Amino acid sequence: MDGKLEIEDIDAAYCLRFLREVRDVAFATVDEEGLPAVRVIDVMMVEDGRLYFVAARGKAFYADIMRTRFTAIVGQSQDFRTCRLRGRVERPDDEAERHRLIDRIFELNPSMPELYPGDSRYVLEPFYLQDAQGEYFDLSGKPIVRVPFALGAQREAVEGFVITGRCQECGACADTCPERCIEEGSPYTIVQEHCLRCGLCRETCPYDAIERRR
Amino acid sequence: MDGKLEIEDIDAAYCLRFLREVRDVAFATVDEEGLPAVRVIDVMMVEDGRLYFVAARGKAFYADIMRTRFTAIVGQSQDFRTCRLRGRVERPDDEAERHRLIDRIFELNPSMPELYPGDSRYVLEPFYLQDAQGEYFDLSGKPIVRVPFALGAQREAVEGFVITGRCQECGACADTCPERCIEEGSPYTIVQEHCLRCGLCRETCPYDAIERRR
């Protein structure tokens, strides 16, 4: 993955490859008490638009995933680019298929047979993310860059802020924006791919013309 | 932080310093729908046993934190050591005190004034973790090492498995353990600091003598 990346090149396939390269990724779940939990998990394989990971049946992570079938993940490269992904988790119903997947994952990840020698590997269960909303994010440059994307049957998430027709073109939002990503016009517009989503424009607008996007 | 680290040296203060050095840490929250969310956030300051971070008022992260006052975080160093921390989030009530904290954080983190120039910094709100359960984790060696710790008024989390008095000393658990961290005895015992918590021993025990720790 070289440095000449164009925004147009960033899509779901790119972000799955990115997360596989980052490999050690934070996986968040909700526990039985409704509280967040997070741990670093390896992205084991990316194939056919699916991101695969494993969980040992004894772990709290496994219990959370089986109960909620949902996870949110984030991975960051050493040059501070980030991908987030959030969605439903699937597990093949058939045990033989799950063993086949574990074997394939162990072939692709040479450190795994050391950690789980012999048949102990089958205490691991394979899971994959398929339908998910994601975002690529690079805070290292000026302007920052963010690109939303969707995986499988999901649609892109819509977040941040939008300037409505109530805009009086006073320019207060553009002056206050720390990222300088609001452009003049009728109405003024936020350049979404550079927006920090800090919300300062909405707080500043004298005409209450700025709303959350939905 | 050098390589001659002894398990006895790993405590809450060590892990806070570790997370500050890692700096880019995954923060998980639960959103309005009860689903997990996670993003990379900077650890801005560690002081008086508190871990400080900031959130802009326009962000979903800010809304989650204000609503739940709870987060779970995980950070990993480039040599694959990990610290997790999970607990209550506090915010000073007094606005002047919050501004003072933001100013101090901006002094300590030179990239912040670039990202939020001038008074735009005050769209950020300062938060800290004080009472929390944590774990230090090093999966890079054999055996693996994990050390639980507590911060503030919390107690150490108790997780994993324990061999009860129903143990018949057959040795099946020790033979199956991928980490080889079960020692002979009456009963056999799991060396908790090296345990993967995969649960294979519990599945294997013919006498149902192994339980979750609580």
From TrEMBL, chains A, B:
The keyword Phosphoprotein does not apply. Residues 158-183, 186-214 form the 4Fe-4S ferredoxin-type domain. Keywords: 4Fe-4S, Electron transport, Iron, Iron-sulfur, Metal-binding, Transport. The keyword Chaperone does not apply. InterPro entries: 4Fe4S_Fe-S-bd, 4Fe4S_Fe_S_CS, Pyridox_Oxase_N, RnfB_subfamily, Split_barrel_FMN-bd. GO terms for molecular function: 4 iron, 4 sulfur cluster binding; metal ion binding. Pfam families: Fer4, Fer4_4, PNPOx_N. It comes from the Bacteria. PANTHER family: DIMETHYLSULFOXIDE REDUCTASE CHAIN B (PTHR42859:SF10), OXIDOREDUCTASE (PTHR42859). This is (4Fe-4S)-binding protein. It comes from Eggerthella guodeyinii. The lineage of its organism: Bacteria, Bacillati, Actinomycetota, Coriobacteriia, Eggerthellales.
